[in-house]
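During the reporting period the student researcher (J.K.) took over the structure-prediction task from the postdoctoral fellow and processed the backlog of single-chain submissions. One of the processed entries is reproduced below for the supervisory committee.
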Amino acid sequence: MEYERFIAEVQDAAEVDTTEEAERITRTTLTTLAVRLGGGEAGDLADQLPEPLKEQVADAGVSQERFTLEDFFARIGEAEGIDPLEAEERVRAVTGVMSEAITRGELIDVFSRLPEDFTDLFSPRS
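J.K. obtained the following structure tokens:
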């Protein structure tokens, strides 16, 4: 999927007003996910994302941190200046688009590196 389409779909799904907001929540979500995944898996995910997301995700995944799904939403909310519930809605928009943009095999690999409560984030949008 091309970058412009990826961001347009996030903007629509997240119901944000501007392309800039969609780009920001996309970067924040995917780089935070990369930190949770770490190293090799973050790099594998990055390989399937459009530029410029590819490099940002790969760079963020250099180190790994373990945190809960609740902490995931809190980190993104804090970075974006929004409450965790709004962060959750926007994260679900990003991960829904991401789930459509990467291969099923890569999606399964991502699932395998995360706690079970994260897996419902990665379902294609209806």
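The committee noted the following: The chain is about 70% helix and 0% strand.
J.K. will present the remaining backlog at the next meeting.
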